[in-house]
Amino acid sequence: MAAVGRTLVASRERSDAAVAVFAIVSLVWIGALLGVSFLATPVKFLAPSLTLPVALDVGRQTFHWYNRLELVFAALALASAAWRETPWRRLAARERRGASGAPSSAGIATPPYGTLLAAFLTAAVALQGAVLLPLLDARVEIILQGGTPPESVLHDVYVIVEAAKLGALVGAAWLAVGQLCRGAGADR
């Protein structure tokens, strides 16, 4: 019985660490997303001394490097969310069930929303890096060569994906911080 108790404590500490990593990654990613996509990029086009081709070339480089950073964020979010949803958590849930066999109200038996959000974020970043950025780069290259690319909705799609990522990140941070606060309240 003492071994099960130690396993439960280790499982909770592991889960708390995973949730903390998930919360930190989500919050830092929100800041980076707001800073790069919704502040620095639009403001760059307001600089009168910056020509359109130069601004587009800087933007192309910025978003390629930012996509690499987002891949790291996505991997960390997915790993920490999956780390929380391990068999240890299921064991802890079984051990915490009451005499009736019903799950406790500790929130362990909830659907893996964090994992679903992390998977969505990973898919969105992969879509941007593998599909949207190369297509947008081709359009920038046409402009850099002095041409005019045909009308396209690619930029709008990219902005919609950025907004969807922001919404998912706010939801992920909300879930993780809320879980950490509930856990801290339970320790008192």
Walk me through this protein's architecture.
The chain is mainly α and 188 residues long. It has one domain. 80% of the residues lie in helices and 0% in strands. It has helices spanning 2-44, 52-84, 87-95, 113-144, 154-186. Helix 1 packs across helix 3 (87-95) and helix 4 runs antiparallel to helix 5.
Total tally of structural domains: 1
Order of helices and strands: HHHHH
Give the C-alpha Rg: 22 Å
The largest β sheet comes out as: none
Shape: elongated
Strand content: under 5%
**Total helix count?**
5
Structural classification: mainly alpha
Query: What distance separates the N and C termini?
Result: 24 Å
Number of strands: 0
* Low-pLDDT sequence parts: 103-109
Mean pLDDT: 85
The helix content, as a percent range, equals over 70%
